[in-house]
Design brief:
Blueprint (H helix, E strand, L loop, with lengths): L2 E7 L8 E5 L6 E4 L7 H15 L5 E5 L5 E6 L10
Amino acid sequence: MKAIQTKYLPATNTRGNRIKAYAEGVKPLTIPYPHELSGSAVHAAAAVALCRRMGWAGTLVSGGMPDQSGEVFCFMDSEKYEVAA
């Protein structure tokens, strides 16, 4: 199962705000910040763009990072796993 991590990159003197998506063993993909979107949808756009470039298909689920620097996306499996409290 692949995990895709996204990260917000602030503007520099030469580039505007961007979102970077990366996964282990895959060349990262950076997209311009999609101002028409907000919240998690911004990070999802980068994750979906990386999936399209790699030819990956499926349903993604997401979660936040502890340091709030971005999000992580994983493909949802057909198997379900339960965690007992």
